[in-house]
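Supplementary material to the annual report.
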Amino acid sequence: MSAGFRAVQWNRAKLVYDAILVAGVTLYIAFFIAIGRWWLSPPDDPARWEDLGIRAFGTCAFLMLTIILSIGPLARLDRRFLSLLYNRRHFGVLTFLVAAVHGWLNIDWFLSRGKGPDLISILANLPNYGSVAHFPYDTLGIVVLLVLFLLAATSHDFWLAFLVPRLWKALHMAVYVAYAVLVMHVALGVMQSRHSPLIPLLLGAAAAIVTVLHLIAGWRERAIDRGTGTSRDGWIVVGAPSSIPDGAARIVAARGGERIAVFRDGDRFGALTNLCAHQNGPLGEGRIIDGCVTCPWHGYQYRLEDGCAPPPFTEKLATHRVRIAAGMVEVDPTPLPPGTPVPLAHEASAKVVPLPP
Amino acid sequence: MILVEALAVYALIGVAVAPAFVIFGIARVMPEASLTSGARLMLLPGAAALWPLILTRWLEAGGRR
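Predicted assembly:
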């Protein structure tokens, strides 16, 4: 956490995650080339090999970016996907590396044929930028690569601290811009060189999956925001104590839209802001582990009673007062300064509901 | 073409600024941060990409002393 910065904060789970990622990329590229070799004879033509390599790495990067953008909404819709979210930054860095190989193979294709100046003239031919049929789609690929480089280069926790989470998060939202430009890059490339409907269909399906998943996750969150009632003095009624699973939280929204995570730890109830101090991860989707609220994204931990990370870490979160009135858990929508201790509400008779697996 | 040249100049300045920042600048800008050598190495590409922001923060931190 905040005590110091190491090159890579690997643990066993992250090593397994990374090993699966690398194996997946290797297998995909090997299969793509093997099938392509069988499909596109003659196999001895070096140009075919180069072309296959370019397409293998290009499609792999597109697929990886599609998966990366789908992980967020999937994890909101189903907790089982949280394990994919846990190490998504390494997924992103590997995606950049795969995309960079695709880019390098493209440049090499021109250079190995002595056509370097042709590439420059393609990119610099301004009139073609006004034509769909002749648009230099390589330029879009370069833009995507530059954005992915920026995201990969600033993915280390140091940059999060240096830029502060709000700016860092805003910068990393550029991944959506990169994906939109990537879709155009592929669409224009396919349109200009091939007439098979298969690739446009797959492209459209991938973009539609990403869009629909985000819409469904957003719709569900709006439903949560609308479903909260308030008591006479303005406290938010969360629900019966038994409606909060033990060791987990229910998320409610204050009037301004700020989300509050109301946790249950046995017969104790407390509330923190729903935004983790690390990357604004959804704390309310995490669990209480070793007595601390644990963010589902990267495992940052906070004490429920004061919102402070356990020593030696220094992160602090805003806390909220909680009470049990007329058999209902209620939370004060006004946040207290980060790190403010609050008495936890007790409900000795609250029925413990086990967390679903 | 001008855009490519501008990008190359930007990158060259970044390549020059990045090592200086990870060796000397971090201690000025974020004195509370402790970094391993490996972490400093990992920061080079980001420092090269964000050099205008880094120089601004570095100069600001120098001015406060």
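The first strand of chain A starts at residue 229 and ends at 230.
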